Amino acid sequence: DADVTQTPRNRITKTGKRIMLECSQTKGHDRMYWYRQDPGLGLRLIYYSFDVKDINKGEISDGYSVSRQAQAKFSLSLESAIPNQTALYFCATSASQETQYFGPGTRLLVL
Amino acid sequence: GQNIDQPTEMTATEGAIVQINCTYQTSGFNGLFWYQQHAGEAPTFLSYNVLDGLEEKGRFSSFLSRSKGYSYLLLKELQMKDSASYLCAARGGATNKLIFGTGTLLAVQP
């Protein structure tokens, strides 16, 4: 079984719709992250959380919100999706200063 | 500010050796990571350097020079399955976050 899972794996939605991407991990890590990846731009950090009561904005948080429901779960929401939020979204986890482990990704298309 | 530079694309021949360079600028530097990412898949961890020098792991090695803000990933005995994007990431800043480069797309040819 995968240590970091993301649902859904693919999603097509329309402009203005609310979308939630979910991430779960069985690694027991405290730290969780949401990134988006766009061609030519690399991975960019949206939000991160160092524990259940800690939420921090990354470099591109506008238009997104997150919820850390438990140590193992970290959800990303797009309140009103727009086409330039079309991207590949990755969740990642880490234990303190250790390396980050990535989920399989969610491919989102906003029409 | 924080910045990572690496070449956009490289091509190499099966069985050969290739070196992928990365230069970085970040305050409070606290480690340099290399990830491999096949098209449409998740990045997977390859190596980590925090002290100057070479770290070897099978066919892959990574080198770091903190004074020069420079790292490279060395891939030996290239195989077709090594065709992928290689991401350089520096950890630093006030909150020790990872800053990723845009990746180097390596094409291994027969």
List keywords for this structure.
heterodimer; A: 111 residues; mainly beta; seven-stranded mixed sheet; four-stranded antiparallel sheet; 11 strands; globular; B: 110 residues; six-stranded mixed sheet; five-stranded antiparallel sheet; 0% helix
Description:
The complex is a heterodimer of chains A (111) and B (110). Chain A is mainly beta. Chain A has strands spanning 4-7, 10-13, 19-25, 31-38, 42-51, 54-57, 64-70, 73-78, 87-94, 101-102, 106-110. In chain B, strand 9 and strand 10 (97-100) form a beta hairpin. With 110 residues, chain B is an all-beta fold. Chain B is built from no helices and 11 strands. Chain B has strands at residues 3-5, 9-13, 18-25, 32-37, 44-49, 53-57, 60-65, 70-75, 84-92, 97-100, 104-109. In chain B, strands 2, 4, 5, 9, 10 and 11 form a 6-stranded mixed sheet that branches. Chains A and B meet through strand 5 and strand 10 of A and strand 5 and strand 10 of B.
The CA-CA distance between the termini of chain B, in Å, is: 41 Å
Describe the biggest sheet of chain A? 7 strands, mixed
Number of helices of chain B: 0
Low-confidence stretches of chain A: none
List the helices and strands and how they pair.
The complex is a heterodimer of chains A (111) and B (110).
Chain A: E1 4-7, E2 10-13, E3 19-25, E4 31-38, E5 42-51, E6 54-57, E7 64-70, E8 73-78, E9 87-94, E10 101-102, E11 106-110
Parallel strand pairs in A: 2-11
Antiparallel strand pairs in A: 1-3, 3-8, 4-5, 4-9, 5-6, 7-8, 9-10, 9-11
Chain B: E1 3-5, E2 9-13, E3 18-25, E4 32-37, E5 44-49, E6 53-57, E7 60-65, E8 70-75, E9 84-92, E10 97-100, E11 104-109
Parallel strand pairs in B: 2-11
Antiparallel strand pairs in B: 1-3, 3-8, 4-5, 4-9, 6-7, 7-8, 9-10, 9-11
Summarize the model shown:
The complex is a heterodimer of chains A (111) and B (110). With 111 residues, chain A is an all-beta fold.
